[in-house]
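ok so I'm stuck.
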Amino acid sequence: MKKFVSVMALACALGACQTMPMDSSATAAAADAPAPATAWKAKRGPDGVHPDLNGVWQVLNTANYNIEAHPASAALQMREGPYVPVPHASVVALGAIGAVPAGIGIVQGDGKIPYTAEALATRDENRKFAVELDPEVKCYLPGIPRANYMDKPFQIFHSDKAVFMAYEYAGAVRNVYLEDPGEAPLDSWMGQSYGHWEGDTFVVEVTGLLQDTWLDRSGNHHGYATKVIERWTPLSDFHMRYEAEIIDEDVYTKPWKISFVLYKKVEEDAQLQQFKCVEFVEELMYGHLRKNPLPGPALDRAKREAEEREANN
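replied:
not stuck anymore, here's the structure
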């Protein structure tokens, strides 16, 4: 009997504990606990189905100098010095302005472009004469994917029926076909772009690219048969992941990829400025054709060409 009474007393005590109101501090802590996070979903675009990619976008990396990882250096083009390489004579006057900032690179995998032996030799030769050979120096259109990671912004305009990209550099533009246009009728600086959606990712196949475009200022290059498959995926209202697979069996031993984040400009006056640089390079390209060339490279070139003509006559 005593054992039964003891068990009943213990049961009552436990029941009382379970029905007692919670301490006020515990109640407050529960109220302040964050609500379960909900998965972010991109704002829908003009068609109401796919993400809105409209806006002005720009990178925050140094890939246009070199898409592979690289340390800071004194200049893009170097020459042998008495002890270590020094800036080339054509850029030495630029001092720190002409220096190359370091970068971790955007090439995926081991960080190296898988060149064939011949293509690697071409890259090395390009690098030796980067200031003279880089198409950007002469304001030629940058091509794809380079246009997307230059230091100047670009703008995406799209509706439910069209996608158009405008770049600040050299006034470059791309019209992205949304129906397969077939093979490009001819090669061009910006190539032919054909896009389609895979879920929330906009996939663009770029073909018909001129071999003359480089991938960066360090001589990295591609060939005539290059195909670029871009993937544009929103990460937030203000960030977008850009990925591109680059395929060309004549230049690379295997397909390879680049990846980086684009940042959306959100200031009220976000817009493209003009950088139509053709007129900026007239002296560089045609200064030697003046009746009286200005002292410097133009005059030196004019004299050299006059001497060559005289020797050939």
